[in-house]
Write a structure and sequence with these properties.
This protein has helices spanning 3-23, 47-58, 77-84, 96-102, 112-129, 136-159, 168-184, 193-208, 214-217, 225-254, 263-278, 286-317, 319-333, 347-359, 392-396, 439-456; strands spanning 61-66, 69-74, 91-92, 369-370, 375-377, 380-382, 387-390, 457-460, 473-474, 478-479, 486-489. It contains 16 helices and eleven strands. A five-stranded mixed beta sheet has the order 1-2-7-4-3. By secondary structure, the protein is of the alpha+beta class. It comes from Polistes dominula.
């Protein structure tokens, strides 16, 4: 094909796309190029910043082509609540990596009746485990969390030096082992080779399966060596992980004294009951078993761990805000260690957690939804199969909703009466039908880890570090770059 024909073809595709936009009243947005759409203009290291710029230019409903996927960016919190509450937006975006790897199993990538059934199941499991407001089950959950928190504090104490250390490995082990306990009923020694491999696999997966990665939108790239290797490693890692899960499942089935307070046990019971009652597993299949366990463990560990890492980094970088939390705890608790009962009387701590979740949205692009039918948003037509992006970064850094949005100010979450404020533009766990199913559990874990760590330590930047990076690296989640912190026991300080 001649250069002239290539140029002519591209022009015709552009004209067709522009005409189609007018015909179907698609949202305003950049035109992009044939085949690749707007991908060439995306900042590969910080796609959330590029997309946020588009929402500032085109408004709260912005449409663009990202490779083969038509995408709509939403950046108005009220609109997002309205849209994501509708069933027509409860699908998942047709991303090649997630669909190609997960194949619709699990919970995160599931759709339709499978998703509805499994979401009900997981919500019920979490409540039975103790994700409730009060009662004996919550008390038991609190004890399980605190056992890991205590281990974490001992490790931080033993490992901290005047020059500081990066707490990532310690935190990953402890938060991950808590999820291991809740999901599998199994915990690992920190240096166990299988556990070290699983942690490394999770870290790599978070980096490679970014929502804005080109392989998600241009599946033909898998035939190129660079992307083909990434795809192979991800799929191979998944299969090896499933083999580990199968061994844990077999251990559970063969042990009459196995821990039954786990997601694994609950799923296994459902499988057994369905076979006995109707000889039909329904959605409780072996493949769903593996993918669901992976989803709950992975999502629970990654988002909670990342938020905790950002929290410790920000309170170290802003010691005056850390001191406010310490003063609040001393005033209302004296030397008593904080418990979940104290959440209501520690609004300063809760406000600081919220401000960390705002200023460093763990999932800055949000978890994309997909339209399961032709539908509308306001006056605009939204085709079936559209990727809907509730752009958290745009909302959480918008000066229309937040004064000085790029500044770290926990006070913005303190109401006039001193209680915890809940601004409408704050969406850390998203909203709607696919809101994070474990949001309350995440809040419990974050509170107990942050409260107990600050109760025991003053956290600081090492004296030999002149500056610290607060921008982070973006994959699926926005994670802190490697850094060092000093954990000084409070009992060695004067009050």
């Amino acid at each position: 094909m001649s250069i002239f024909m290539i140029i002519l073809t591209c022009l015709l595709l552009i004209i067709f796309y522009y005409t189609n936009r007018k015909k179907h009243r698609l949202p305003p947005g950049p035109l992009g190029l044939p085949i690749v759409g707007y991908l060439p203009w995306l900042n590969s290291k910080a796609p959330h910043l590029t997309l946020t710029q588009l929402t500032r230019k085109y408004g709260p409903i912005c449409g663009l082509k990202m490779g083969s996927v038509y995408t709509v960016l939403l950046s108005d919190p009220k609109l997002i609540r309205q849209v994501l509450a509708k069933g027509s937006f409860a699908g998942r975006a047709p991303l090649y990596l997630t669909h190609g790897i997960m194949r619709g199993y699990g919970l995160i990538c599931a759709e339709g009746d499978l998703w509805k059934d499994q979401r009900r199941f997981v919500a019920g499991c979490l409540k039975n485990l103790g994700m409730v407001k009060f009662g004996l089950k919550r008390d038991k959950m609190e004890r399980r969390i605190l056992a890991v928190v205590d281990e974490c504090i001992l490790k931080l104490k033993d490992r901290s030096t005047e020059d500081g250390f990066d707490p990532n490995e310690t935190l990953h082990h402890c938060v991950g082992n808590l999820l291991n306990d809740l999901v599998f009923g199994k915990t690992y020694d920190e240096n166990d080779h299988i556990w070290k491999w699983l942690r490394k696999l999770q870290e790599d997966g978070v980096k490679h399966i970014g929502v804005a990665g080109p392989l998600n939108f241009l599946p033909f790239l898998r035939f190129l060596p660079q992307y083909g290797k990434t795809m192979y490693n991800l799929i191979n890692g998944k299969l090896q992980t499933h083999e580990i899960y199968q061994k844990i499942i077999e251990e559970h089935r063969s042990n009459p004294n196995a821990n039954n307070d786990t997601i694994l046990s609950a799923f296994n019971d459902e499988m057994t009951n369905k076979m006995m009652e109707s000889n039909n597993l329904g959605y409780f299949t072996e493949q769903q078993y593996y993918h669901l366990l992976a989803d709950i463990f992975g999502a629970g560990t990654d988002t909670t761990l990342t938020t905790l890492r950002w929290f410790l980094l920000f309170v170290a970088a802003y010691p005056h805000e850390q001191e406010k939390i310490r003063h609040e705890m001393q005033e209302v608790l004296s030397d008593k260690a904080p418990t979940l009962e104290d959440r209501i009387i520690l609004p300063r701590l809760e406000a600081t957690i919220a401000e960390v979740q705002r200023i460093r949205s763990v999932v800055p692009i949000g978890i994309p939804h997909g339209t399961i039918e032709d539908t509308q948003i306001g006056e605009y037509d939204i085709p079936k199969g559209t990727m809907i992006v509730p752009l958290q970064w745009s909302i959480h850094t918008n000066p229309s909703y937040w004064k000085d949005p790029l500044e770290f100010k926990p006070d913005r979450f303190i109401a006039d009466d001193g209680s915890l404020a809940k601004p409408e533009a704050f969406l850390p766990f998203q909203t709607g039908k696919r809101i994070c199913v474990g949001d309350e559990l995440a809040k419990m874990i974050l509170f107990l880890f942050t409260a107990r760590i600050l109760h025991r330590f003053v956290i600081s930047i090492p004296s030999n570090v002149s500056s610290i990076d607060l921008e982070g690296e973006c994959g699926i989640t926005l994670i802190p770059k490697p850094h060092r912190l000093v954990f000084t026991l409070r009992e060695n300080l004067t009050n």
